[in-house]
Specification:
With 280 residues, this protein is an all-alpha fold. Helices cover 46% and strands 0% of the residues. It has 16 helices and no strands. The longest helix is centred in the first third of the chain and has 29 residues. It is elongated and about 85 Å long.
Length: 280
């Protein structure tokens, strides 16, 4: 039997790969020749500068510029180019986003959470805007302003979260396992708490909190409140009724213990009124 050496095939494959790498580098270098200027701006005065070193170190650093800017076919290109379509590669994320509270691409482009398009890093990278320790600040850029509250009728929750037991564990202790915004709300497919499918919908809150607080969820579901929720009682208290959603305190702290009586009394009004007359 005649054997064929694999060496020529390996050499050919290596040359092909090397050519592809050189092609990417060449394409990028041609673009960087203009866009590498830190002062580069478009006609409207917006920066169009790209830091080559940071881009090549980013999650998209192995791509050609035209992989995203597909409408650009040559140089010189028009001043106004078509917007980049992230869903060309990120279809699953785009589908989730389309049905979420952030579905408006005009108000919530991908870069509003992931940062500068040319310096996007993996979520496991501490430089990433969606790294666990950075998520609250990223979300807080919108959900920590009065403008957002006035426009959409939403509370400014960022300062509440940062002062909570979860915010403290994340920002002060650096615990990556501490709950951040996407731990409870998800990432791309974030739904209104009024949506029955939302993890923050009232009926789903015990299960959502139970992802971290498994033992407490078991105790809760075995108690009178949990059984009432399981039976479909929509008025039965869930975690956020007693602990709130964003301003959660350490249950053993004096401040929370002092609030426990009026918290319980908000539902048990009759018992609360007589409690005031007791020794306690």
């Amino acid at each position: 039997m005649k054997t064929v050496s694999s060496i020529p095939l390996i050499v050919a494959a290596s040359l092909f790969c090397l050519g592809a790498v050189q092609s990417v580098a060449q394409a990028s270098s041609e673009c960087i020749a203009c866009h590498g200027d830190a002062s580069a701006q478009d006609a409207a005065g917006h920066s169009i500068s790209v830091d080559a070193a940071k881009f090549h170190d980013s999650i998209h650093g192995s791509l050609e510029c035209s992989s995203c800017h597909s409408s650009i076919k040559g140089y010189p290109h028009p001043d106004k180019v078509e917007p980049v379509k992230c869903d060309t590669c990120h279809a699953e994320e785009a589908t989730g986003l389309a049905g979420s509270v952030h579905s408006s691409a005009a108000e919530h482009p991908c870069t509003s959470c992931h940062g500068n398009a040319h310096t996007i890093y993996p979520k496991s990278d501490a430089r990433s805007a969606v790294y666990p320790l950075n998520v609250p600040k990223t979300c807080g850029a919108c959900h920590g302003t009065e403008g957002m509250a006035k426009k959409h009728g939403l509370a400014s929750v960022y300062p509440l979260y940062m002062d909570s037991i979860h915010g403290f564990a994340l920002s002060k202790e650096g615990l990556l396992v501490a709950a951040n915004c996407n731990s409870c709300h998800g990432s791309h497919h974030i739904l209104s708490r009024k949506d029955p499918a939302s993890p923050t919908n009232r009926a789903n809150v015990p299960e959502t909190c139970g992802k971290c607080h498994a033992g407490i969820e078991t105790d809760y579901m075995g108690g009178v409140h949990g059984k009432a929720v399981a039976a479909g009682n929509k008025d039965a208290p869930v975690c956020s009724d007693c602990h709130t959603a964003h301003a959660i305190e350490q249950p053993t702290a004096a401040a929370f213990r002092m609030q426990s009586t009026p918290i319980c009394g908000s539902c048990h009004k009759e018992k609360f009124s007589t409690y005031r007359d007791t020794f306690h």
